[in-house]
## 1
Amino acid sequence: LTGAGQALALAEAALSAPGPLLVVAADTPAAERLQREIPFFAGGELPVLLFPDWETLPYDAFSPHQDLISDRLAALHRLPALTRGVVIVPIATLMQRVAPQTYLDAYSLRLKRGDRLNLTDMRERLIRAGYSAVTQVMEHGEFAIRGGLLDLFPMGSDTPFRVELFDDEVDSIRRFDPETQRSQDPLPGVDLLPGREFPVNPQAVERFYQRYMQVFEANPARSALYRELQAGRPPAGIEFYLPLFFEATATLFDYLPQDTVIAWQEGCLSAGEAFWNTVRERHAARSQAPDYPPLPPGELYLEPGSVFAAFKGFAQVALRDGPDADALALATPPALPVDSRAARPLAALEDFIAGFTGRTLIAAESLGRRETLRELLARQKLAVDVVDDWAQFCAGTAPLALAVAPVDAGLLLPRAGVAVVAESQIYGEHVVQQRRRERRETDPDAIIRNLSELAPGDPVVHIEHGVGRYLGLETLDVGGQGGEYLALEYADRAKIFVPVGSLDLVHRYTGADAAHAPLHKLGSGQWERAQRKAREQVRDAAAELLAIYAKRAARAGHAIPLPDDYSRFAASFPFEETPDQDRAIGDVLGDLAAEKPMDRVVCGDVGFGKTEVAVRAAFVAAHGGRQVAVLVPTTLLAQQHADTFRNRLADWPLRVAALTRFESKAEQQQILADLAAGRLDIVIGTHRLLQKDVKFDRLGLVIIDEEHRFGVKQKEAFKALRAEVDVLTLTATPIPRTLSLAMSGLRDLSIIASPPPRRMAVRTFVRPYDGELVREACLREFKRGGQVYFLHNKVETIERAAHDLAKLLPEATLRVAHGQMPERELERIMADFHHRRFNLLVCTTIIESGIDVPTANTILIDRADTLGLAQLHQLRGRVGRSHHQAYAYLMVPSRDALKGDALKRLEAIESLGELGIGFTLASHDMEIRGAGELLGDEQSGHIQEIGFTLFNELLERAVRDIRAGANATCLLGATGTGKTFTMANVIAQLEKPTLIISHNKT
């Protein structure tokens, strides 16, 4: 069986099988491919489940991602009752022992409307089941209880749920959006699965103790592993001790219904034997670890022979690769590439259809790609029917049909007179994107104003009383009315209590570090004086900033409406836009269509789709008769952007060129002449574009990528540009000045904070350099077929570092890349890495921007303490561009030796590991720098005194007032109540935003 033949044969087998079909794949990529393809051929009639791998090495010190655990538990829960359907599992995953079915039964629960529920008991039950108590539910396996509300994100569910109680009865159950916290439509009930693949209750911990003694003949109390478990903190990698939590484990075979049919791919036996050898090798390597001794391989895994022996208890089907004349007569169509510049772009496809005696189905990878192909076929006068699935195609008679079907390679059925041509055979590439969770929008205001990160001891600003220190939440009974209050401490240990209903009066303090924030003395006038001085300075700063923007406002903008064929161009985007990306595109197109000049910042994490926002803007501007300049910080990024723009615009009459040092002098002169004459629509380049010899005929849009990477002179040039043309800035970590201006309304801000579907956060570690750690990290990546970046940022010693790595990792194929190499050689090395011709790239920060290698999911950064926060964030963004768990190791000489800003930078990036945190990191960057760079040294003292958030609000008001022509003598007058409430008069004022103050002077 070749191409999509396996998926077709398996779909037919599943439809005719008496029970479910278990498909054993040779590896994870093959399993994922079958999961995508089988539903199309089965017509959507059958559930298709993937039982995923943990994506860790045997005996690893890492735990699997919660999303993977969720998918595994959901599959185990469904399997015993499955009557029809397909379950796909890689052979190495099938060899792994799992929890017995009795565990899932004991810790699963159906919660329905009308049930009686004691929240105290429920909290204990959830914790025993492995759920984590949090303040705000965001991820699988979390729950939060607030009053009569229970929020929880069950394992196996796509969304979290909110359970509302009336007294002790479940009144409603609704899904809710974890970002906005808004509830959705009510549901009759919800299924709760365990939070882990093993129990964590006291009985299970005791069983672990006893089994540990039996297996290792040692006292568990001396083991760090057991001590952490007993303290309620199961350590990373605890899953590799799963058998110790049970009297007996199970295998996936124990969950299968008796009428299951098993099909396995050719190569499963050799893949299973290779994995078993890896298990034994890693067990031997770990056998000397006293704190974390490895279990014998047989306790955790089945041997390959045992797996194939278990097959005999079920009906079986063997899948062989390659054509087989005695079975289905299957083959794969040849490549049929489109040539958009030829007179007959689809000549190869037309010739194939003309020479094939049967009917042909073209499989597009998305609705947008389907429409693009339909229009392309129509232009070549090829009539085509659109069908929904394989069954509809088989029932039809049209010689050529088109469907959305994620097949990687086509198939030929000569006897049946049917051919399937995959889109990748026409375009030479395929871009499959799967949705892991429901589409989720991110609220930028919530990111900016977020107080949820506050920890006791953090400094805050109260708008009437100044800088104090947050002590925590306290419940107080005032005048017979109970409520929650924020406790804030000021100088001389004076305290105030702020009702949670008046949170708008409190902001996070950003300025100095937490230990040196200037606590104000209540009632001393100190806070009023600080505000007065800041107000005077902020007005000057606002006037200076507005001078630039007044020039822009005075200039009549050039409105660029959407061209008629924009929707067709948008539909050709090969991925599904995320909600945030959709909103950012809408914002930019709205700006272009308006009369006033655009100055918008699009902030999105690395790999979240900012480039497509730029492509859409460039397409609209160029169609509107304006030239577009794309400014990027590095030559490599210019080349990658040029390729992206050319590919996206290949079917449109727009000329794109790159102006970098990779072009010869003659090529550069031709590009400059074409720009000046208006023959070139879009030019992409480095700061070379800012030189005096670069002249445009009708420049209308400038796109600046990663502004923080440019120098002072270039930024000054950008300032001048902003007064003349539409400007779009793309950034993953906005520099603080950019963020401040965007937040104060001088520049518009769009945030892309929702990751592409199936994207997982990069796990980040700060560690002292250790050869064994480097070897382990690389082997983990190599074993799953991935690639590794090793960043060593000193050109003088990079060859020696590469030599040392080659000795440490004889398994690796290694190359070196740095900015002092000849341009062509550097370009070739990066292209070879992209095409997976080697698996370890030793490099400098030249990879910081623009290198997109989805199979590279581990990065090791040597001397990470010497790099800035924005750099570290960008470098970490080189990995994690697929749905696999990615790892970033920030290696330092010694964590104890780190001081000041270097330690804070590393702690910030290590603690903010979730997706989409470039925006949050910019705020941390302000704190680390003391916000001094924000608006110049003169303002830094005032920012330090009153905090960045309030300074930014003063700036915003000053800007607003100056624009309105107001005097703005008292910028804070509208916010203060003019009163301080004490315990004596608070009862009479409960309906107002009250403060309870107690002085505890020592």
## 2
Amino acid sequence: MGEAGNLSFGYWVRRRRMALDLTQAELGKRAGASAAMIRKIEADERRPSRELAEMLATVFALHGAERNTFLCAARQPLAVEALPATPPEMLLHSSLPTTPNNLPAPLTSFVDRTHDLPAIVRLLQRGDVRLVTLIGPPGIGKTRLSLRVAELLLEDFPDGVWFVDLAPITEAELALAAIAQQLGVRMTAGNALTREVCAAVGSQRVLLVLDNCEQVITAAPAIGELLRGCRRLKVLATSRIPLQLYGEHEYAAPPLSTPPADALPADLMTYEAVELFVVRVRQHQPAFTVDAANAADVLDIVRKLQGIPLAIELAAATLRRETPASLAASLRETANWVRTLQATARDLPQRQRTLADAIAWSYRLLEPAEQRCLRRLGVFAGSFTLEAAAAVCADEEDAAQTGLVAAWLESLVDHSLLVRESGRWRLLEMIREFARTQMSAAESHAVQTRHADYYHRLAPPAVSAPAEMEADYHDYVAALHWMIAQGDAARAVSMCTSMVWFWETRGYLLEGQSLVRQVLALPGEVETQRRIDLLSHAASLFWQVHDFAGATAMTEQAIAEANTDCLPGALPSLYNSLGRILIEQGALDRAEAALRQSLTLARQVGALNPGFPVLQLGEVAFARGDLAEAARRFDQADALLPGDGVQLPRAILHTDRAELALARGDVTTARRELLQALPHVRTHVRRLRYWLVALAGLLLADAAPARSPLAAFEFLAVEAALNRQGAPISPLYQPLLARRLAQAKTQIDPETQAVHWRAAQRWTWQEAVAKAEALLLDQA
């Protein structure tokens, strides 16, 4: 120990790495850090965290006093001189593991899980942990992860690291014999095998890696006996089911990190799922890279496969005969894609030849009732509640037995076939596809009908809080598609009407339009009032994407049907909607006529708050430049509109008043109105854009000189994020937006604009809202 001279910690790390013949990237992978971090450590620019120092010590094969010294030196510069001074040229040979082991040599490279690997290693290095079970669904990579962990722990268990593959074992009582065989223990007459194994292991520091424990789960008590009889033995097990032994530490092996849908091509290789895909493709296409031409397809592939290593490896193998584009299309369009991904390697076990084989391995371990439950859960398009599961999974005689369904769900979670998250459950995409293939045509029809019945009952009223539909949105859509396919016009109209407000507020305008057209084209009797409701609400989807002809035709059709069937109560709202459509087109005279008709009818029949048409008459006046008349109308609307709750009219009113104040040069009033509008615009992407245009006017008019460029950038960035939501801005606001965008761009150099614009492309709508709020609150 000890070395003279000016030895820095970074220099010592570099010498040790070079002696081990590792690149900075390779060391980073093994230690769960980036190559950039290793570079900074070696340059003495950064010190490793405690966790990273622990992993570096493991990779460097440091033990006992040397390990403690290294950990101290990592945090305290004065301790560097005490680091081991083993000649660098000797380190490579002296650090090679000498622990007896039978770990199978890897045939392919390991794509390190930067979080999981160090976490599991640390867990097994703890003195109070004796049993760790890696839990996870089929194909998640439990075996490979356990072997990599075992490699890193060879020096921690000098008496042996032994791998036992239990996959070929079909009888639980043979599991202990397989363990004994790998340990070299021979049974002698009159002695129990457990006692023989305990006697052989004794007080040795041994690690047992038990792979595929799920099919011999009843042998788990024997593992517990071994742990009690061998005080320095530790077990790392892999299983799709917890062993449920005292002292067991479960570690749920997650999918590989997967890029978001809007990830930039340059960032894809930083995600584990993409890295694994590329590494495996290069086994047969050495020159393969992710580039601008294939980035979108690679992104689609790994996202569809949800970071499941087996699925990714099988997909990579198909690129022997396919292109990334054709594979991505196949995964999108093929109903039973789980069976189409097949391995070409002849030496893989049957359960790893296809995704379907891997899942079927777990499916066969379920009880018949659990199998039936899993099959039926395949109908869900997204996550679901216990009540939803009971509606589709329980047979009629079990309809009230929610507790029984809950037990099935828990069992499926235990078998790693179902994911529990925040009071809801979710199937991985590959398991959902498998489950659907297990249903007969008759069972599938019955289950889809139950599913549609449940979501039809659950659907909130039209123009209700969109948050009520958020979590179940994909299942609402699936239920609506089923109703359309069955020609169930009445319920499809009802469901579609419930969904329009969600499509509008969330910016799903094109999807909503498509479904509305399909529903309106269905033959069959539908109550006139219900049909009018759908036409009225759906027209907003059309004019918001500037299909004014479609929106006008729907509204005029609804007016005609209301007159024909003598439904005067529907007319005020319909004329108010027509006024909105005409305002959006700049047809101000016709808009005023429609709105005055709406106001007259509203006062006659009382079916609409007159504040709605009055507010829009104020917008007509504002568009004409009559600021006094606009202010009068806005004040009238303020007195008439409801004051409680979050509502779209209030968002419009306060945003319009802010623009009016800006037109008068009154930034104080504009700021106050925008603050009042804020609670009402958060959940409506289109109104948020109008609000943002007004906010830009305020920022550009009132920002301090030092703040003005930053305000301009943030406005541009938020606008870029919101522009992706598919909600075109009104022709009335387009000149304002264009003028303010141009003004903002003059305050920032083009390079800075491009950098921040790219950053904004990654923002979710919610993040854009938060940025917009921060802009205003910073001005308040």
## 3
Amino acid sequence: MNFPILTLLACILVFSNVVSLKLFKKHAQLEETGGYRLPGNAKPTFYDLTFTVDFNVEKPTMQGRVVITLDVNDTKTQKVLQLNSNITFAKDAKASWLSNNDTFSCNITTPDPNYLELTCDKSITGTNQKVTIDFTPTISEVDMDGAYLVRYQEEEKSKVMIATELEQIGARKLFPCFDEPAYKAPIQLTLITNVADFNENQWISNTPVQSSSFNNTTGVHTTVFQPTPPMSTYLLAFLVCQDFVNSTANDLTGYDFSVFTRKTAANFVDIALEYAPLLIESLGRYLNLSYVSLENDKMTLAAIPEYPGVAMENWGLITFQEIYLIDEGNKTTIRDKQDIVSMIAHELSHQWFGDFVTMDWWSNTFLNEGFATYFEHYITDEVLDDVEMFAQLVTKQQQVALKDDAYPNTIPLSNNASNVTTKDDFDMEFGVISYCKGGSVLKMIRNAIGDVTFRTALYNYLNENKNGNPTPDNLIDFLEQATNSTVDLTKYLHEWIYEKGYPLLTLTLNTDNTVTLNAEKFSSSLNKTEEDNKNIWWIPLTYTTSDNLDFTELTNVTWLDPNSLSNFSITLKSGAWILANLQASGYYRVNYDATLWSRIIETLNVSPELIHVINRAQLLDDAFNLARSLDGSESELYTRAFTLAEYLKNETEYHPWYTFFVEMQYLLDRIQDEDTLAALKAKILDIVSYQVRIPKHFEDFNHLQTLKQNLILYWACKLGHDECVQWAEDQFVVYELSPNSIDNNYRDVILCTRLATSNTAIKDYAFLVNKLNTSNLPLEQTDIAKSLGCFNGTPVPDTFTLTLMDNIQFSRMMFNSILDGLINQGTEKIISTLKIVLKNDELINEKWRNIDSVENILNTIASKSFSLDIANVIQKDYIDIYEKDNNRTAIVKTAKLAIDVIKINVEWTKKFETILTSVLRP
């Protein structure tokens, strides 16, 4: 899932013995898409894949052989086959073809880095054809797709392992194959290895071991895995390891379950062992399709010490970044427990949505990721008490999507396949829209038609598309059929799926107490046009009124015709108010006229509990986003938003506070005027102070109250609340003496506050660096790494680039955590960080294997930069020096683009800072 890692391989057949327009078009399609799209002349039916791994060397190597059984179904005589492959072959390389008991050879050429071409001596048309190709894949130490080498420390010893990452375009680096998502076939993997201390549990793949043997003469171990179910090749995975441990769970019905980790982490997987089987059971029960019925009787969750993303849903072998699988035993924070369980839920959901049933092409990625996001929240609620993940879907997914989806460069949930033909296009599909909007729109549909109907539709969708590749239209058909065709979902859902953006619904109270509606496309662009504003969506309206409050009737939906909104009205009693989009069920924003806003705000100030907690979060999100997005230079909208936020002084629930702090961080990042910035901080602190409660030792709050406490204390300490800062400093002293003596739920607050306020920051920084390097727990390391970004001093200590980056235990994720902390500290800290990054560009690219290269760091910094001083540093300290350096062309190009982004950000500051000044400093 993840947040975005991935790999793809495609294979293409063309007919060469007959020169025709058809042939020309097929070659053109291959060339125009860089070898990604297949003409559909053939399909694989089975892969027999073998790798011989030499592991007893400094740099392990592999030799591969694949035997592909396939059907070539063109009516003309064919002698040429294209397979996508990013593997180097010798000039005289040949493949062997078997057709109807006749064996002949095929020449291998590589016209393009993305594919190879087989030119055979005889016709290859027919069913049950077999081609055998020997090849040498690269085990990369640069990129982390295909097969790649992981180096890590375990018990003060250097270790290596081989891992794979094939989504989207990594499979072509591993073996020649058909690897569009639509080409599914079973894969049987054989691993031949020469490790002296061999243990078959340390060599794992998607399926259980079928057989294992050892040759005493050669010292070679041969492990054959059972064939996978028919699946897309990007779902293949295997790990070749030393000293890993397979921790198992017992008493499961019909399948084997285990968690695969470094030996020293094996005692910290209790959360995964306990909750993953419960999640699998809950998913099977909800969908009426058990995991075993998907025809893979193994599930392994594997934690990899150095990983390119967050997690990957390989069928039967899900791989994770360590912080999403390895816990801290009974010291695990409730936030980390939630994150581990929900991330496992996301990836397990993919076994149904993505593995068993797979989108047809990368243009429909939301059919995989949207469902996984939806169930990540829904199913976690089934196994964890009091976490309210479905509510968190609104604040942490839907509200994120509503922000991103309001800009011109957004994309629809389902894109035209002709627009998705390159690696950059694929990457665009693995973003906020597919994940966050996808999950939110599915939630909207479920709420509109009801849970029972939704479940029926999903069962039919999965069952009828077994091992297949449905489209969004196919999903809509099953949804509509489940309603017994009483709801015209084909009409209602079309724009939600196939158009980018979403509507803003505005409610206006008239003098006769009727409320009329208007809708337009919502936009956050600074340059709006009338054409952009037209509403094209059927809006699922739900609402309640103050004289008859009911926030639970989510299926009582009125689908508003975009062409006749003026025909709809609601009559209120005198003095009453109305609130639309109950529990933020629909994927749209709501605005009200001044009178209705005033009545809602008054209710919040007097009796906030009368309005559902999710709607309280929604009101905050809508108010602040309306203020920063609508045209005009008046201060009314921000005045209203801050007036609304005053009610938070009496807010006791987590979700509205989360939304509020997201909006405040947005403003803190952008305001450059020191006096206005000080006024904003004072305003936030005034609101927060009403909820500050210094925790007693290991105080027993429920889940959401602990999350809220953490947020409140983080912001109170960050803004200089005296009592909070003193508590954090006292707790840091305790932590220095005995780290296990503090409540880990607040560890991140304590460490960050200490470095931000300490008079001995350099000493404290050194203490935490040492603690980071000696810790073996990824979650503790992450809290420490994030706190290092809070360092209140300039320049950043040299240990940032020396001690840390030279230490093999210091992972890429730890480096990212420090960077994130630093660049959230304002312009001065960004400039200090930027100078370090630019000065060490080659070291960073080498250390982090181009996954989080200087280019990516520059992009992140640009998104957080709102001062031309930062742009000037990039120009002076990098572009002016290296513009003519051929080895830095890509970074210089990115640096120039970063300056363009910063200039756009500065435009926002110029437009809105004056408004905010008038609101905060009247």
## 4
Amino acid sequence: MKGWHVTESDSQGAIIQQILSEVELHLGGIYTLVTDELVGIDSHVEEVMTLLNSSSSIGKVVGIHGMGGLGKTTLSKVVYNKICTQFERFCFLEDVRETLTNSEGALSLQNKLISSILKKDNHQVSNVSEGINMIKERVCKHKVLIVIDDIDGRFEFDKIIGNLGDFSFDSRFMFTTRYMKLDEGNHFWMHDHIKDLGRAIVREEDIQHPYNRSRIWSTDDALDMFRNAKVKIFVEVLRVDVKSREHEKELKSVDFKDLLGLRYLEVRYGSIMGDFSQVLPNLCSLRLPHCESIPSDIYMKKLVVLDLKECNVKDNWRGWNRIKAAAKLKAVNLPQCSRLRKAPDLSTCTSLEFINFGSCRHMEGELHIGTFKNLKRLSLRWTNITELIIRGNDIGKFRRLEELDLTSTCLRELPTGMENLPSLKTLLLESGKSWEFLMEEIPRLPRSIKRLTISPPSRVPNLLELTELESLSYLRGNIPCIPQDLWLLCDYIETLVISYSPNLINLHGLENLIFLKNLYVGTCSVLERLPSVMNLIKLKLLVVYECPVLVEIQGLGGIGESLSRLLIGGCPSLANYDGFQLLGALEYLTFQEQSFCLHGNDSFPDLSGLFNLKQLKLRCCLELTELTGFERLMSLERFTMKECNSIRNLPDLSGHGKLKTLNIRFCDSLINLTGIERLVSLREIEIHDCNLITKLPNLSGLKNLELLNLSKCTALTEVQGVEGLESLTILQMGNCRSIKALGNLSGLKKLALLDIEGCTKLTKVNGLEELDGLRYMDMGKRMRVKYLAKSAARYGKGLLSGSLSNW
């Protein structure tokens, strides 16, 4: 702090209080959030910090998603306290969802953010627009850490905090939310590891006894709980996935009778049997995707969410009558329920916000939606629904409707009043056969639309008025060129999809969409050239597929600093990749079904300039013989090559120290792999159906390797160093008919699965009986019976012999 000017008239008490207030502004963010309820999560917090430390744009915003009580806020506070001092300024905005219920909530959040970052409590703004300007002018100049706790759909980043791009590149943001799908335009992102970390926190409540925890996500823990006779009153959330457990798919009502506090139940691929009329009295969320049998007498009065994705439920299921009493029901998810012939009667469920009947291909007739005043999302895609029953056929009274998916439906006509839907953000109108002749002109649309899919020659009369539009898809059109009004959307369109357009001959005007971030062009059978993409300096994703006569893509060098993902497939005539070697920001590259003749005009492009490439996928490139510049890919983490039948040798892999996954399949001419023994970061090796490989280098130094799959490498005679793979959990060598011996496996203490079925020349495996963790094994019929006998005696029923198809 700077020196304080004090006069004789100043009260010492007032001065001291002023100094304390200033100190609190500087130190409060560090010390006021310390929590005492942390148990055993320190080792996990580092992974969240790694995500935030990422130098890529993905690491700028990290979201933590999960149900209430999962530990989202706790986790975010711990991370905040650990890293906040690495930033110039920092702020933790708590209880945002609750704050936004107040009419002045957005303004309150802005003032808290401004005072925390600027270290002055007298910088108050009087309206949201003023707050946006101050944040842009004063806050964005600092390297900041901002945590925004407990947000929902009412929180709009751009309208409260401002444009994410205005903040410095080294600033970081972290969200916590109960809602998975937020405003995609605000770059909300969720890493799979975060779910695991949150669940690990809950698991610490009682490691030994799962029935004493509030939430059980592990199937093993859940099945163990079912076998325990004690009362399970603490469990509120339960998830069971029995897809790979053929003998444990049937769950009975007696398994659930003591779960008196259960609010969330998710069972996948199960068969639920018995009388449920007296159990689960507090159930709020019922998710039974892929279940073969569903009880009809479950108590549903308190139900909020019903998810029966791809179930065998029929029209005469008695549960439909019970659902009528679910006054609080907000979401019904019934996609791919192929036995439904008509839409269930949900008219009494007046609180419904989400209805998904997508891909119920036999569902036909009418759908009454007139009572759903709070409806936000409705999907009828790929159904045979012919009519939406609304009073006056006016859909405009659904003021909260945000997403309407009518892709390939059989509607006789579109409802009127769409221009009166102030909340509508997504409208999908890809044509179905029965209504193509009706779609020459779409009704006027509201300006709130952000994502729109239509099928030419359909025309939107007020397209140029849709100033919020970010994503536009033209699908299944028979037009030779794109309407000119599309190219006038250059100031705001970010995603453009043009696909299934057999008569499209040019895309003149594409170069004007200078704010475009994502471009998909596919299944355009007569399109020969793309306009130069050089001016699309914000383009991050380019996908070009199934364009058989496309000969060139011009201007790639101009987007070398922005393009991070490139996928090209099914374009056998493509020979000119202008500026490909300048794609220095590219992280993900896929080539699929490309010819790449060595002596032709369409040779494989030079990879040497792709110094940031993390993932390379090559599939069905049948004439590919060499990978030019592959040895320069020092950032490569994942390499996949499938059905590239002409390539005989790969470059030496030893220089790819960051490589974690190596996946090579059905490469019939591949002879050897050199340098993999030095790839100490490798966690997965899959070399499958490569019939000319006879030998691999010694693998004993790969201490991090967890999966080794060499299945159907029929010429492979030996694999050295397997006994030294101390992290190995899966070893698959099925049908390696030339293998005669393996090392002693007694040191593979983490090995859980062993597949050596079909290794006809392998007569014994040493050390098998010492593997305490081994639970699944397939040895085939020729292996000596003594190993099965010893293993069965040691591990009991957990050790299986026979097929591994259900593992």
